[in-house]
Amino acid sequence: MINPLVLKLERHDRLSDDEKRVLEGAISRVRVVEADEDIVHEGERPSESNLLLDGYAARYKIFSNGRRQITAIHVAGDFVDLHNFLVKTMDHGVLALTPCRVAVVPHATIEKITNEHPHLTRLLWLNTLVDGAIHREWLTAMGRLSATAHMAHFICELFLRLKAVGRADGDTIQLPLTQAELGDTLGLSTVHVNRVLQEMRKEGLIRWQGDALTVLDWKRLTSVGEFTPTYLSLQLEDR
What residues have CB less than 8 Å from 209, skipping those under 6 apart? Predict the structure, then answer.
């Protein structure tokens, strides 16, 4: 299987065969993390970064009252903690929402890449910049969109991110998130999440059966969610 990070980066700019070999060779080992286990813990000072090969993961914070806020959803091709190469200490945890296959890349290898491969370094930098852009978009959506618009925006974004790494089948993606996890992501109660999803089904925007979510009307879904994909930087151009 092609490294999903290669697929993701190639949506931004072309990679040389040498750069692809460098990315493949950067992986020191692959580990499996079970659902509900941390991939990396808050307060940890990792000496390696984790690349998601399969599954869904989430950045999260736990409040003193035990409530959880998910601040990012990660899919195949995402480095869940590339920033820790420079930040050093984790200020949040990263949780496996489903069973995950994770490729481990030592920070010493990332340092070698930054010293020897400037173009690849710029693309990895862009990777973290897009993470930041997604955070800004989520903050804006949570603060100013209705619950239905926020859900529509979230689905549009996730659909394009999965499509970029070959994880969409036509208009259908696998989305094995519970309504409680969606609530922690969107800042909604489980009851409110259920109500919003029922409304979207009734309006003919989506079909969600089991883990399979199908977008039935992309144009209307993007309109409801006020979604424009500029912040994902998916256009192919020189970087």
Answer: none
